[in-house]
């Protein structure tokens, strides 16, 4: 098909120029340590005992983990940052969670006080992933 050939040509030209519609997979210095030092502060999720860090290998593993969480916490909702990746919203919603958003704080040391963001029966997702455009 001519349309497919033209689309493939445009993709190759963009790739040759170093352009991509999807950001690179490198997450920077935070990647090996995970999100805790960058997001949680002692007066927030740690003190309230409302946070946990879950690391998965890709969206499929995340979806499986969320299905288990929904089973044990059926009345929970999930809060994700705005902006976020649309596929993250779809993954949470696909697991059966009602998805809400909170504003992403962009500061030198971004922190979110989840005690004030979500009710105790909700999960606030700080989505630290290698492809996240939200990292400082």
TrEMBL record:
Asked if the Swiss-Prot or TrEMBL record annotates the protein with the keyword Transferase, the reply is: yes
Question: Which species is listed as the source?
Answer: Klebsiella pneumoniae
Q: Where is this region: Disordered?
A: 1-41
For whether the record's keyword set contains Ribonucleoprotein, the answer is no
> Which GO MF terms are attached to this record?
pyridoxal phosphate binding; transaminase activity
Matching entries from Pfam families are given as: Aminotran_1_2
Name under which the protein is recorded: Aminotransferase class I/II-fold pyridoxal phosphate-dependent enzyme
Keywords recorded for this protein, A-Z: Aminotransferase, Transferase
Superkingdom, natural source: Bacteria
Domain (Aminotransferase class I/classII large) ranges: 3-108
């Amino acid at each position: 098909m001519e349309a497919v050939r033209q689309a493939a040509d445009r993709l190759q030209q963009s790739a040759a120029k170093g352009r991509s519609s999807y950001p690179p997979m490198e997450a920077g210095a935070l990647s090996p340590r995970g999100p805790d030092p960058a997001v949680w502060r002692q007066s927030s999720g740690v003190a309230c005992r409302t946070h946990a860090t879950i690391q998965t290998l890709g969206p499929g593993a995340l979806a499986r983990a969320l299905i288990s969480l929904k089973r044990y916490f059926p009345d929970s909702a999930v809060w994700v940052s705005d902006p976020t990746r649309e596929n993250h919203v779809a993954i949470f919603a696909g697991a059966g969670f009602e998805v809400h958003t909170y504003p992403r704080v962009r500061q030198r040391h971004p922190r979110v006080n989840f005690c004030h963001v979500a009710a105790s029966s909700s999960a606030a997702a700080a989505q630290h992933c290698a492809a996240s455009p939200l990292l400082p």
